[in-house]
Amino acid sequence: MQKSVSIKDLSLSFGAVNVLENLNLDIGDGEFLVLLGSSGCGKSTLLNCIAGLLEPTGGQIFIKNKNVTWEEPKDRGIGMVFQSYALYPQMTVEKNLSFGLQVAKMPRPEIDKRIARAAEILQIGPLLKRKPSELSGGQRQRVAIGRALVRDVDVFLFDEPLSNLDAKLRSELRVEIKRLHQSLRNTMIYVTHDQIEALTLADRIAIMKSGVIQQLADPNTIYNAPRNMFVAGFIGSPSMNFLRGEIAGRDGHPVFVTNGVEFALDGYGASEALQPGRKVVLGVRPEHVAVNAEGAETHQATVDIEEPMGADNLLWLKHAGHTLSVRVGGARRFAPGTAVKLSFDMGLASLFDAGTEERI
Amino acid sequence: MSDSVALKSAPAAASKAEPWGAKPRRALSGRNIMLYGTLIVAALYYLLPLYVMIVTSLKGMPEIRLGNIFSPPLEITFEPWAKAWASACTGLNCDGLSRGFWNSVRITVPSTLISILVASVNGYALANWKFRGADIFFTILIVGAFIPYQVMIYPIVIVLREMGIYGTLTGLVIVHTIFGMPILTLLFRNYFSALPEELFKAARIDGAGFWQIYLRIMLPMSLPIFVVAMILQITGIWNDFLFGVVFTRPEVYPMTVQLNNIVNSVQGVKEYNVNMAATLLTGAVPLIVYFVSGRLFVRGIAAGAVKG
User: Fold this and answer.
1) ipTM, 2 decimals?
2) Which is the most buried residue in A284, A335, B164, B198, by most CB within 10 A?
3) Keywords of this protein's UniProt record, alphabetized (chain A) (predicted)?
């Protein structure tokens, strides 16, 4: 894949605090990459470095194979969309869109052409003469995207663009950003703390914690084969069930033992041999626990709480000293106190080393 | 549940659409009498001297000698105002305050404009372009605001003398500009810091430079703080007496210094009516500035304090 943005050994520190340390990241041409993490993990800092708004302490940034580490933001071929929209309040929408082009001394007919195109793509034609204060949040963010669009850039940078919007608008605009990416095929780097946005939009997700990329993979891999317990716990709602225990051998097969209960590990694709006695953590997503399934290895559990959520029904089960969250179909109702049988889909479970918290 | 409560409290005869609940408080309650009484007394306390000044300035000297300082003038005369403006004597000059007025205008206008222009750029640079040593620079500037003026007067006299502008309006304008710098820079820096940082970032991505961002993005959003700075500077410089008397010569004395010379003249009869008129004339400019832009002033102070 042709590289669009390439980050080599990037470091950034504010005083004694290292926000980013020797970070490496390659982003393909036309790729939609999401930087995901909780606040303070360095994802916005990384984006600001790519944009040229922060000077890195060390390392290099390449965009389209050109070293832009010390270039001004305007010379990097990037457009940026901010969480707070950052529209110039005293200018009309049209002026907001044309400001950067005027600064670049572009001829007027070309400016008009580009604004017309952006207005058509984003359906903001009727708003061109309005001031930002006369727009709704969703309209403002459309204009902010338009401002990046008219600059005809190689790389779009989004800094939590939907976080200031209400839930309904957020999902609408999310779809629009995806559509925009499908039609434009530009490289997009998108910072968010919202895992739904990450899973729905991304070609690849980079999950960050304390300035380090924990896992860089497509959404499916991130969800089903998290590389460590942080990634496993960060993605998914409700989060993955973690059961602490150890490996034991039974008739030559490894089994997982927790609080005196055994689970066969048949079907789990371990990347290394499972030595008996090893302390491990078994991670199972709520939808990978089957309730009252036929023919599987089953264990007794009791329904503690039931949370009907419409399409799904979320059960909190008591089992061998653990509380497990389990997702079942919305039609399957269980009264609290009901005894049920549960079984795990080991093919989709995750096993982590209890010490390193890395996937086995 | 809430329905039954409503039925109990509302009068049985009243229809449901009518408002009910506690009666509105009476306008003439004990609390209000205390409140407005205090306010009126405080207002009178401050307005009474002004009243005395105005009525005295409209009386002739014979009427003043009767001693009834609170009584309104029996015979209104604008003679004292005319004399204060055009022919009251200070030292050898007998052309009244008019000379001082124009001197003050020539001092205040350039000092205000230059100090605000420089301080706004300072504040903008300190808030948005975090250059190396910005914090130290800012600290030094702020410390400057706390050094008593009196300490610096003699050194400045020497500096101005060496520059050959001691005793001139230019020298005084420079002094006012420099002394306004710490507080104005602080004001502008805090205002620009409170503007969303992302606007500045967006402008940089759009390719605007230092001056383009200042002129086209920041300035149009900063009217309130410019009004605040203008009011502070106009009133401060207009009311200044110390720098005026130290750094200028009698021909270019500002209005305040001339007022003092008229009022404190020890020769001849004390013309209270002329003194009052002269004082009111001198105070008129800051008063008018406050009245015209007071609302913007309050808004600017609030805008600087609350993050937008």
Assistant:
1) 0.85
2) A284
3) ATP-binding, Nucleotide-binding, Transport
